[in-house]
Design a protein that fits this description.
- The chain is an alpha/beta fold and about 450 residues long.
- About 40% of the residues lie in helices and about 20% in strands.
- It has an 8-stranded mixed β-sheet. The protein has a 5-stranded parallel β-sheet with strand order 2-3-4-1-5, with helices on both faces.
- Strand 10, helix 15 and strand 11 form a beta-alpha-beta unit.
- Helix 1 crosses helix 2, helix 8 crosses helix 13 and helix 11 crosses helix 12.
- The longest helix is centred in the middle third of the chain and has 17 residues.
- It starts with a helix and ends with a helix.
Amino acid sequence: MQRHAISDLKAWASSSSRRPLVLRGARQVGKTWLVEHFAREHIGAVATLNLERHPRAAELFADPSPQRNLAAIETLLGQRIEPGRCVLFLDEVQVAPQVLGRLRYFHEELPDLHVVAAGSLLDFALADPAHHTPVGRIEYLHLEPLAFDEFAAAVAGDPVVAALRNHQLEDRTPGPVHDKLLGLCREYSLVGGMPAVVDRYRQERSLVAVAPLLHALLQTLRDDFAKYAGRVPTQRLQKVFDGAARLVGRKFVYSQIDRDDRAAPLREALEALCRARVCHRVHCVHGNGLPFAAERHDREFKVMLLDTGLYLAALGVPLGSLSLADPLQVQAGALAEHLVGQLLRSTLPRHSGAELQYWSRSAHSATAELDYLTAVGTTVVPIEVKAGKPGSLRSLHRFVAEKRAPIAVRIHSEPPLLSEVTTSAPDLPPQRFHLLSLPFYLVGELPRLLVALAERLGVA
């Protein structure tokens, strides 16, 4: 499969200031495959030391000398590890997080050796102050499920991907092409982006065939609850996870998870799920400018799951019963909002743990909410998602009028269109702005298109 992260790995491998790389991401998003495929294709070989399969492997790093560590690993694996020609891959490193502290010595004394570490629950170890991580001597890469264009490449081929990546602001997509791409994106919304599920769908093109695999992956994630660090009971983690699935697209309220439980332990459980990356917060912000986090409502947020396919499995939605004609109407449009969030997450910088945000305004005269906010340069751009027929965009108009935003985005099922619009917020003066309307299948191209539009308008 094509993965965008391959380009990040290539840039890392060729950098003169390269440091050991720690790959972060939820279970089953393809971390092991990515590293081993990249190493064989672009470096020459890979030596994988799985610390889960070798429970005593941490003893190999007891000596402070990385040269002796490397010699011991070669003996254990029966493989020569030649710097510059072989990647040393420390998989499931969360089992022995103290090994991360040793990576600084590899950076200092064996700079020509490509070293990558990965682990599904690694974020728990990284957050634990008991485990020293060599600040400034390692770097991170975050891996998400497959983006839509990666899915499209796997199941429909490169010409489809080229159509997405070559789309320009003024392009008019022919009806048959639009229908094909929209149908493919609807398939993606049901299948999701977990690599094993996408591979099964690529082979069989059957939603019925992938459903058992999605449920098996979901059970694997739930089985991991017992491994989470801290004192969070597994039953509470299960309760919060199931509740998060029900509340997708709505403000997350702890009392709606369990009226008889206190907010503090439920908050602790949600934090654990987010740290494991099976859930992600979408933060409510004022949207007055960057950085968004400077004006964040800490107690107001939404939650999305790792993947749309797993989201539907968690809800118990039988995929075989869903019509591909309009599956985005599931849960009153919550699937559409989750889909866009997942696609937006796939566009975030992979070297940082960036998060999504939305905007909400409560007032007696004008209550409004926008699904997401993004930015081009320093300009805040509102995004409204429409699962069904195009509506009035009332919340979007209010945000533009209040913040004097020059650009806004609508995501829907219609062909792409760029238009100039005047706001219609009753109690605010009208303002002209550019509305970029994109179908769901072009969300992954949004950063590129926004840059092009901002440059055309001279927006900073």
